[in-house]
Amino acid sequence: MIEIPLLTIITKLLTIGVRLSGLMLFAPFFGSVVIPARVKAILVLALTLILYPVVGQVIDPRVITNWPLVIVTEFMVGAGMGIATNIVFEAVQLSGQVLGMQMGYSLVNLLDPQTQVDTTVMATFYQSIVMLLFLRMDVHYWLLRAVGNSYRDVPPGTAHLSGLFTFSVVTAVGQVFSLGVQIAAPVLSATLAADIILGLLGKASPQMPLMLLGPAVKSMLGILVLIATLKYWPDLFRRLFMDAMANGERIFHLAG
Questions:
Q1: Rounded to 10 degrees, what is the CA torsion of 165, 168, 173, 177?
Q2: What is the pLDDT along the chain (256 residues), one digit of tens a residue?
Q3: In the beta sheet, which residues pair with residue 120?
Q4: What DSSP state is assigned to residue 64?
Q5: Rounded CA gap, 174 and 168, in Å?
Q6: Are 137 and 232 in contact (CB under 8 A)?
Q7: Is the sign of the CA dihedral 117, 118, 122, 128 positive or negative?
Q8: Which of 44, 55, 203, 218 could share a disulfide with 51, CB 3.0–4.6 Å?
Q9: Measured between alpha carbons, how far is residue 252 from residues 47, 74, 248 in Å?
Q10: Contact 28, 134 (CB under 8 A)
Q11: Residue 238 class from Cβ within 10 Å (0-12 exposed, 13-18 middle, 19+ buried)?
């Protein structure tokens, strides 16, 4: 009969759970402050117990001797995956903030349930729609499947934080601006064109009350363009979510 020390079992469980904890803190939906910390802790514990029979067998016992470094590395790997997959929501937040100012809604602020900070109404609207698409497309299941596969591809204790891993995480964060401009492009282009036309009209006829008409025209034009482009959002964000998942998987492979 083989006896496994209780300390070894606990250490393996904690090693598995640390990567999940890093993911749950930074991943979209799971990392939301709306979800109570107790619920997140229970979910991490449940997933750890589910993964232990398979993952626990491949953890090298020698990992325990270097456990503090392993904990830091595993947490960073999970956090890197979460940050990479959360890029889409950060880009949506940026595009909503830009359009809120461009359409004249910068003074209309709401409490964002995702971040618990005051944001423009357009940013809150964009975040809510994208979160519904996220859940409707079952992207949270993709995320759980990806983290489960990560234990097979990069077993706990074998990951290391290389320069390429760090560079990939920083590069992923740098994509926020480009994705935000891409998401906001239709409405942003229409409102910028309206600014140019109104400016030319103001030069041609200085008597026109453009200070009163300008915000209303830009607001109505932006809303009409937004309504017209909403039907393309499912395909757009499905592609963006798939790219984000692929980027997250590539990042943890670089830690292997």
A1: 170
A2: 445 577 777 778 888 888 898 888 888 888 887 788 888 889 999 998 888 888 877 776 666 667 778 888 888 888 888 888 889 998 998 998 888 888 877 766 666 656 566 677 888 889 889 999 999 999 888 888 888 888 888 777 777 777 777 787 788 778 888 899 999 999 999 998 988 888 888 777 777 777 777 778 888 898 999 999 999 999 999 999 999 888 888 877 776 6
A3: 109
A4: G
A5: 10
A6: no
A7: positive
A8: 55
A9: 19, 10, 7
A10: yes
A11: middle
Tokens (6 digits) for 175: 């994509």
Rounded to an integer, what distance in angstroms lies between the CA atom of residue 112 and that of residue 34?
Answer: 10
Q: Where are the domains of the chain?
A: 6-254
Return the SS3 of 111: strand
Nearest CA-CA partner of 39 in 28, 52, 51, 24: 24
Distance CA 46, CA 32 (A): 19
User: Which residue is listed with tokens 């997250």?
Assistant: 248
CA distance 247 to 256: 15
Helix (DSSP H) and strand (DSSP E) numbers for the chain: 9, 2
Q: Fill in the amino acid letter for 138.
A: D
Other C-beta atoms closer than 10 Å to the C-beta of 170 total 10
The three-state secondary structure class of 38 is helix
- Torsion, Cα 64 66 70 72, to 10 degrees, reads 130
CA angle, residues 113, 116, 117, in degrees to nearest 5: 120
Q: What is the pTM of this model?
A: 0.83
